Structures are given as structure tokens and as C-alpha cells.
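1st attempt posting a full record on here, be nice pls
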Amino acid sequence: MTFVTRISCLLLAWLLAARSLAAQQTLYLLDGDRLTGRLVRIADGQWVFSYAGAQLKLPQAAVTGLLAPDPVGVRLADSTIGAATVAPVPAGLALTFTDGTTRTVAPGDLAAVGNPHDLAALRPIHIGLFSPFTRFWHATGSVGLSDKSGNSTARGAALSLDVERKTAHDRLSAGIAVHRESSQPPGGTFQATVEKYFGYLRADLYLTPQFFSFVLTQQERDRFQDLALRSTYTAGLGLQAVSTGATDLRFWGSAGLKHESFYTSPNDETAIAIAGYSLSQHVGPATFAWRFEATPSLEDLSDYHFRSDASIGTAIVAGIGLQLEAINEFNNRPQPGVKQHDMLLTTTVTYSIGH
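the predicted structure (as C-alpha cells):
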């Protein structure tokens, strides 16, 4: 290595080190401590500060000053947005904006901080039922093939749509599935027969981060089970056991009413209970989901219905994926001539949008 090259490398290293030191910020606390690091964000009354390899969450009341010699993006409580350097003063914080204007504000007047080169990201987000869609909503549609066993051996087409809105305070979910099936008589060829429908609508309200209340309605039609319409309406309480970016595990119990209309038998109505759980686990590009519900009649506990819905899907490209799903149903007291157990397997191509 030549002398000039060595000098150039040393000069570059010195400049990078000087830049890194200049980028450091200092946080002044109420108890007199000073932390040197980087202010990551301000949200929900907390200052998140990167210090010694960890992110500290500090209440705004514990912060008395901030020194940021390099410009940072700021949004003030009065909605002013700009890039400014920050220095502590007896009256609070002295802001010097890149356009030369200055302001003195209290630490509590800083509503958000961010990249000084992307001030648009600091604008407040209007939160409505459908906005911002990609932050709170997730929707998946699928189309593919189904393979049914139990009360019939059939092949057919499978269509489904599931949508969910999830926030820290509530969760709204809805879905519909349609399976058009073809049955094969002995010695015959496949011919179109019937369709199977399933739909649900559910609203969860979180009472605490762990406990929630909910209402749920489910509608189902299945000609193979002699079922013209099964309608259930329940309300109950649940436990959010795990909620992370990779894992969502919930348990619940509810009580309500079930009404069933049959093609060949009189209608039936009974009070029911529902106990169930759902698990969603992300592993790389793959997602495993399993939902199970047990529905006994409160008037006769020997009259019960189980439903298990397990699936595994993987993302391929640009929201497109592939999913395998198995729906297993067991009815302990089916209609005359109807088997207790039904199994439906589907292989579908999916398209997802949202978070």
C-alpha cells in the first residue's frame, strides 16, 4: 500500500468517525442524568432513545432537554413540521430550522421526530374505519380445487375471501367461502351437484391487552349434510395469550343461539356454547394457521359439533401465494342417513394485500 493510499484511508476513517460523533445526540433527564445516543421516535407520551445498544422508553415528563447538533425532522404539537437542530435552554428546547427561523418550545411540544429528508412521513395519519388500509387491514382471496370425503366423494372448485381489521383496541374479521362440487355416481362420470357455503362476521373489543369481548355470527349451507342453513349467533369473552409479529394465539368461550333448517327434516333451534382457539404462526415466507371450535348444545350436551380448520400457505411473489387447507367437521348427532364426519381439502392460489 502506497503512502498516499494510507493517508487517504486514514483521512476517510477520521471523517467517518467525526461524522458519527457529530450525529450523536444527548438526552437530558429530570434526575440530572445525560444519555448519549439517538432519539428514535416520540409516540404515546414516550421518548424512545437508542443508548448503549438498547432502546430505552422514557416518559416525556422525565425528559428536560435534547441536544441534536445535526438537523432532525420534527413535528410540533401545533402541527408545524420542519428540519431543525435542537439545543437545551432554560426555557426548554431551542429549535433552529434549516430556513433560518428559530423557536423555543417545551419538550412536551415535540409530537414526533424523524428523517429530516422525509418530512412527509411526519404528517399525522387520519385513522378511520378503512384508513389507512394497509396499516390496519389485511385481505386474502383464493381460488383453487377442493377434494371432499365423508358424506360424499366429490371434486370441485373452491373460492374464498377473508378480511380483517386489527388495531390495539379492536379486531373486525369477516369471511366467505364457496365450494362448487361434483359427485361421481357408481360407474358414472363426474357431474355437477351442489354447493357448500360458509360465512362469518366477528367483532372483538379489547378490554385489556390480554382480555377481549366479542360477538360472532356464522352462516353455513351444505347439501351433502342435508343442511339448508345453519345460523349461529353468540357473544363471549376471550384471552389473547400471545400477540407478536410472528405469533397470534387466542382462546375464547361464548354462548348464544343456533338455528338449523334442513332439506328433509323439521327445523331445529337450540341454545349453544362455543369454546375455541386460533393460532397463526409465521415462519419466513410460510404461515401456519389453525382454528378449532367445539359447539355443544346447552340443552343436551351429547348433541355437539366440532370444526377444525388448518392451513399452511407460503408467499411466492407480489402478494401471490399458495395455500393448502383441511376443514374437518364432526357432528355427533347428524340427520338420518348423514355421516358424522366430513373432510374437505383445498389447494388454492391466494392473493393478499394489507399488513
